Amino acid sequence: MSENVKETLGFQAEVKQLLHLMIHSLYSHKEIFVRELCSNAADAADKLRFEALNDGALYEDQPELKIWISADKEAKTLTIRDNGIGMNRQEVIEHIGTIAKSGTKEFFGKLTGDQQKDAQLIGQFGVGFYSSFIVADKVTLTTRRAGLTQEHGVRWESEGSGEYSLETVDKDSRGTEIVLHMKEGETEFLEEWRIKAVIRQYSDHIAIPIVFVNDKGEEETVNKANALWARSKNDITEEEYKAFYQHVGHDYEDPLAWIHARVEGRQDYTVLLYVPAHAPFDLWDREAKTGVKLYVKRVFIMEDARKLMPAYLRFMRGVIDAADLPLNVSREILQQTKDMEMIRAGCVKKALDLLDDLAENRRDDYAKVWENFGEVLKEGVGEDHANKDRIAGLCRFRSTASDEPTVSLADYIGRMKEGQDKVYYVTADSLAAAKSSPHLEIFRKKGIEVLLLTDRVDEWLVSHLFEFDGKSLASVAKGDLDLSAVKSEAADQAEEEAPKAEEAKALVERIQEALKDEVKEVRVSSRLVDSPACLVAGEHDMSGHLARMLKAMGQNAPAEKPILEVNVGHALVKRLDGEAGERFGELAKLVLDQAVLLDGGQLADPAGFVKRMNALLGA
Ligand SMILES: Nc1ncnc2c1ncn2[C@@H]1O[C@H](COP(=O)(O)OP(=O)(O)OP(=O)(O)O)[C@@H](O)[C@H]1O
């Protein structure tokens, strides 16, 4: 098809769904379309400025970047125009008519049909350009990309019901013009005072002028039109900070907290970072782009969360504006310079300062941060060597003393028993499995707190964090356990009652002989109270839990045989002592199978287990 012919294209299915939902559920916030369109126009100006660093001709005869808004009461249209980067035909098809966001499918899966809840979700997802259809029954977007000649304009038009038309048109000015044909009853947005009020409320922070053009053609700049982050902290209201967040964060909700600082030194820069109040849809996409924007002397340079913030802080939003970097530096070089590294390190420090402050002074808010981003933050313990201890200090865990993930390592250490010198933890697939781990029995008895680690990232965390504040971290399921120094009356008594390892030596050797193909070693346990046996990994071996996790991810885990620890005080084990021959072997196997199950593992021979079990039950 020739490019000049008007063609009709269908919206991607998700767009249709989004439009429908949005029109119905965001109706009570219909004025947000002004914010969304101004926000896009400002981004387009940023992009143009960046491209023009290498090609000044892109400015044509219009170096001053602006947004113009005008209303035509007779035609019932509202027009929002910018002289930013514009779009070519392909970009229009890709950006307007498709949703290219990661997490789109998951997002639609979460919708409930309940308007209020969905409205909130849609807000989080970002409504962008499509919000025009809340107030308009037809939208005409005409655009020309900077650098293309005037016959390469593109006109996109839609009634928001399922399809749009596209044609090539002449457009003499660069940038994008959006004409909203207002719905019957939405004419309030054609009133000058109403438009101005909405701009002041939502778009005051936009760094380029938003100009209202009245019906006589007179122009008036409505917003403050300077970069918010460059202003003095004292002159910025809370509302302004929030509104700016919604723009940079592409979020509909208020942020939870922010930090705004000017750093002076070898590199001068300003940083304004926000912690969102909820997780973005692409939190688990480590390649996701949105995040922190880099400006050099107010000129937008790049938006690449990973270069400006480490992956474990990818939920942070905001801007960094460097005063001393050369403007004409390419993105590639920028990413490697020492100066950039310094700035990045400084910004990470600011981000951690903000989180520390929340953790210390706004505990309820920090609990939300942890709920949303805790798993991501934990990645930092292994990723950011320089800040490992600070990040570990920010981590919160569940423990045998708390079902909520509120226990910090410092809290734990503060509660350690007299004589206890380690921070103990258990790793498992679920809280229930962690809590019922046989390895915890002696800890319960002695009243020693154990951290319950059930996130996927926890094994990674403990493989990088060996100690905190001088106390080493130890798995309750690994190596030898010696709690004899820990004072506890109940347990001391129990220890005296338990038969000594010496007495059980012969039995242990017999079990070991019977299970020699399956286990590395059999030994008397000092961990067990109620269970007959448990599996233990060698001090330096991989835990059974990690081995299973790796296997589930399709990776090869070294096939280390476990150590079987038996509770020689347990009736089943005592009974073994009186058995011999084949029956002894069967019972020993049963003890091992139970330990495998309690460890969260799978039996190699479930049928054999059932048979042995039934034989024991006399069935
Ligand atoms: N005025 C404009 N000038 C140039 N490109 C634009 C303009 N408006 C929209 N676009 C392009 O269309 C894309 C989609 O815009 P849309 O508002 O739907 O989403 P967004 O801004 O990317 O994200 P969000 O909806 O989360 O704010 C933009 O990313 C941009 O590439």
TrEMBL record:
GO cellular component, one term: cytoplasm
UniProt: ATP binding residues: 36, 40, 82, 87, 101-103, 124-129, 176, 331
Region ranges (A): 1-331
Localization (cell): Cytoplasm
Region (C): 549-619
GO molecular-function terms, A-Z: ATP binding; ATP hydrolysis activity; ATP-dependent protein folding chaperone; unfolded protein binding
InterPro entries, sorted: HATPase_C_sf (IPR036890), HATPase_dom (IPR003594), HSP90_C (IPR037196), Hsp90_fam (IPR001404), Hsp90_N (IPR020575), Ribosomal_Su5_D2-typ_SF (IPR020568)
Keywords of the record: ATP-binding, Chaperone, Coiled coil, Cytoplasm, Nucleotide-binding, Stress response
Positions in coiled-coil regions: 491-521
Histidine kinase/HSP90-like ATPase domain sequence ranges: 29-186
Summary of subunit composition and partner proteins: Homodimer.
Record family assignment: Belongs to the heat shock protein 90 family.
Function: Molecular chaperone. Has ATPase activity.
Name used for this protein in its record: Chaperone protein HtpG
Organism, scientific name: Parasulfuritortus cantonensis
Phylogenetic placement of the source organism: Bacteria, Pseudomonadati, Pseudomonadota, Betaproteobacteria, Nitrosomonadales
